[in-house]
From TrEMBL:
Residues 15-25 have a biased composition (Basic and acidic residues). This is DUF3618 domain-containing protein. InterPro entries: DUF3618 (IPR022062). The chain crosses the membrane at residues 132-148. Residues 1-25 are annotated as: Disordered. Keywords: Membrane, Transmembrane, Transmembrane helix. The keyword Transmembrane helix applies.
Length: 155
């Protein structure tokens, strides 16, 4: 029996075998990583939570913008529809309220402990920083009140 020469193409070289093994290892590593990611429920929950937080923040910003627009429109309507004598009386009442509040504030400041006063100053600073939304909300409340009152008069 004589040996026939082996087919060179069917027998891989050691280098080709190493490349195949390395390629298979890479594929296996990727598969293991994918399976581990699917099995990591905690990571998936964190990812979903982050996604939902982002969606909620976007929705809140959208709703806030819509509210600002509607409030500005309502305030403009109130200003346009309210007679001048009513606006004057409202301005006078507001001035009286401010004066009374200032007097009450001075009396309270004299009798209030320092720690409570500091916390109140912090709250006042925050309110001053957010004046526009506060005024818009007040204007919206006035509009609702006027519309309800108007509806009751028609009955």
């Amino acid at each position: 029996m004589t040996k026939q020469p082996e087919d060179q193409e069917s027998t891989p070289t050691p280098e080709e075998l190493r490349e195949r093994v390395e390629h298979t290892r890479d594929e296996l590593g990727q598969t293991v990583e994918a399976l581990a990611a699917k099995a990591d429920v905690k990571a998936q929950a964190k990812e979903k939570t982050a996604e939902l937080k982002e969606q909620a923040a976007e929705k809140a910003a959208y709703v806030a913008d819509q509210l600002r627009e509607k409030t500005a429109l309502a305030a403009q309507l109130v200003k346009e529809k309210t007679p001048d004598p009513v606006l004057d009386k409202a301005a006078q009442a507001a001035a009286q309220v401010r004066d009374g509040a200032a007097r009450a504030g001075h009396i309270a400041a004299e009798r209030t402990p320092d720690t409570v006063r500091e916390k109140a100053e912090t709250a006042a600073t925050m309110a001053k920083a957010n004046r526009t939304p506060l005024f818009a909300a007040a204007a919206a409340a006035v509009v609702v009140f006027l519309l309800l009152r108007r509806g009751r008069k028609r009955r």
